[in-house]
Amino acid sequence: MSNYTDKIREISERLLKEGRVxxxxxxxxxxxxxxxxxxxxxxxxxxxxxxWDSHCGINLANYLTDRKEKIGVIAKGCDSRNIVxxxxxxxxxxxxxxxxxxxxxxxxDRRKIASMSDAEILSVAEQNGKVxxxxxxxxxxxxxxxxxxxxxxxxxxRNPVIYDELAADLVEEQKNVDRYADIxxxxxxxxxxxxxxxxxxxxxxxxxYACRNACPLCYCPTCxxxxxxxxxxxxxxxxxxxxxxxxLRAYHCAGRCTDCGACERACPVGINMRLLTRKLExxxxxxxxxxxxxxxxxxxxxxxxxxxDPEDFIK
Amino acid sequence: MGIEPDRLHFSWISSAESTKFVEVVTGVTxxxxxxxxxxxxxxxxxxxx
Amino acid sequence: MxxxxxxxxxxxxxxxxxxxxxxxxxxxxxxxxxDDEKKFAYQSGQxxxxxxxGKGEIPIGIASSPTEKGFVTFTVNKVGLVSSYLHSMxxxxxxxxxxxxxxxxxxxxxxxxxxxxxGGGFAFTTLRSSIIYMLHPENRSKFKDIHVIYxxxxxxxxxxxxxxxxxxxxxxxxxxxxxDGTKDPDWKYNVGFVPTITEKKAPNADKxxxxxICGPPIMIKFTQPVLDKLGYAHDHIIMSLENxxxxxxxxxxxxxxxxxxxxxDGPVFTLSQLETMPQEY
Amino acid sequence: MKVIKIDKKDWAGGLDKAxxxxxxxxxxxxxxxxxxKELDKGELPDFNFSNTRLSAKSxxxxxxxxxxxxxxxxxxxxxxxxxxxxxxxxxxAVLGIRPCDAxxxxxxxxxxxxxxxxxxxxxxxxESTTFAGxxxxxxxxxxxxxxxxxxxxxxxxxxxLLVDAGDHFLAKVVTEKGRKMLAAAGWNxxxxxxxxxxKKDAESKISSxxxxxxxxxxxxxxxxxxxxxxEAAFACLNCGTCTYSCPTCWCFDIQDESxxxxxxxxxxxxxxxxxxxxxxxxxxNPRGTKIHRVRQRFMHKxxxxxxxxxxxxxxxxxxxxxxxxxxxxxIRKICEKxxxxxxxxxxxxx
Lengths: 315, 49, 281, 350
Description:
heterotetramer, C: alpha/beta, Elongation Factor Tu (Ef-tu), domain 3, Rossmann fold, 2 domains, 7-stranded mixed β-sheet, 6-stranded antiparallel β-sheet, about 20% helix, D: alpha+beta, 8-stranded mixed β-sheet, 4-stranded antiparallel β-sheet, 12 strands, about 30% helix, globular
């Protein structure tokens, strides 16, 4: 991974020196194991701040919304797809961006590592496909492929779909991934069982909105949960309001979600809200053959009407 | 979402299709009545401390 | 323990539509329990939370004066959920008021001084309260000259028109009413923005002259240099801030400007105080 | 102060005995983390945790709390009048609260219980609660309690300090309230066991130190105008995780919610991270940008509170905001920046 970092710094320095961008948005080393902090670099001499490793799971498209500068942005496969969506939705202009593509082998699931250890994790490092996890009294090694974030394990677009520079050679895409096994199980449940599943799924939610705010799609100036005239959703921790928030948010992302996993990664209480977003992703794929953010030339399916749109639900 | 399939109906009815309209409305009413009152997205009163 | 969140029940006693755009109404409330009126002892410059059951609360400056007994009045601009609903309510309806809250204008300091009141638009409410208070026969002798500069966009947007006319006729208060512009050929007062009229009509500063200024941010922004030009010291310029509020008693945490809460430590601040605080209002 | 030895085999029995006089709250594991909840009869708190995911503040200050109830039905005599909701003020005890979380209540108390106003719900809940804290034998790497006027064995927010000593607890009686609870449980075996050594050992394990000594020397405007805020705020998502997980954050919102002809006025936690928090009806927002909001949070905790009460920062060093922040904004780093800040000519004004 250190060669990724070197290359990113080299490209960023060049872009800043040549004045092609006003700032580069990337990651800097975090203060906690498995955490990096999104940051900007405006001066060529500061590019040494930038790092790249398996803990860059936050979606940087989130930091582009409505910005006016010329920006160099570091983009994994999912980030690049959200950048495409941002461009289509007029949240940033293609001309403003120099996209530094990072072919990605998946991010590491910090929750999974934390849950495997009773003791506090003090550091996590990588060596030849192995992840070395250190606690106060022990050091354990794991296969990197066993520790991927759930969305990364299912990812079929690891390479950036749009880029101006590349920080490494393209990687091989994962083949024969069954993205929706768990969704099919839920689809098969009777209504009551589904309802109980969602009750349980969202019971820990504290309505902090980290999922919404980490999501590059959630840029509405006033979110529906904040509307007061009329008020759509109650503000309390009532489970109905909580579920309404999650369901509606998922619907707002239908046909736009790239399954970047930022929502789940950001959640302080570990809610698997991707169960909702992936169901809609699956529907969009099955009904319209659509995957979000692959091309600048196509409008998202819920944005267009076609005579062959499926309508078997209409009686 | 846990909502019974029969509780939600979609239909195209032209303003000229009065018979179809009656059929659909009757059908929807019967289907929903058969399911009984909806319990799931109903907020009774806020459960609070 | 007195519950500071519990509103006193009141009945709407009268409603007056003040302005031609019908967005400002003055509500007069009578306390359902006469004892509550005593508990609601206030001074000019304070505000209260108007509580509309089922909708919520809004902080509004008290427009009546402590010298007026038997009722309290508030002039409310229709902007949000609660104020819009309030505008649809009728005489006789029951609601609540909670307060009084915040600090009044510094009446101890103002005693024996010239007072220059500068107001714009619908921010004239607590200034109206102050004028009524100072003009009360028991109080008038406590103050020296009273100047008022009050402006609105048009004659129809002025608040308290009858009272303005009555004050114009008195010789113990110098009124300078102005409008930004008017097509009314009979308009007999000033035309011009508040800062311009202030420059022409406000008295020069001295250590015994204080100004109280309330109005939209743009008016304050342009009036301040005028007062500087006239030589007003910044601790002689008194302002009243507004911020979003919920509790009104310094607990809910949103209305702070620096370490001070607008609700509990304000809303009245001098300009010299404000200069040491972040401009988060 | 007395120290009582509680054999762990007497633990469940004692709690059962005391449960007639107390509602117990304690840490319980749910899904991937521990959190405080009211314990069912016979349910034991689970002390196999470093700290709970969320703080214990909700025991006294629930995320959603009913304040008043009302009727909109004009046929009823008291229609449109607010009536205080009845609350259960029976004595309660929080078991296993960490010293940091307990001392947080003392910081919050200054807000809810002051010479001018007393918040009835917070004050009653607080006063009816006995805090039986559990000393931290193994603090986390992200804990910096000793820098925040607290510590792994800190007693000041507690009525009883429990120390896990293997097959038994050592219970140090801190207040009369604490003594009563121990007595109610029938634990009375006094011991002269020394907990000082354990305390020193735990304190020596704290590896994070954050200087706060110079915060009070700077003016509000110097820090407010400091150049580092843009960079510090960049990554922030403006979610409320830091504030909701924080034991010392108390901001709330008040809302009416009606169903048919009746309803309640309630309060819910709110957060300075949200734009709506300060939005005026006119559309103007005094803290309209992310930089404003991030700065507000840190200035409140590390400057405004320091100046207002003159007794340290509004933080107990529990480290939750650091561990839970999705983008790794670290209060320790910001505090260092503020503490060491020297104003420079050319910093932006306001």
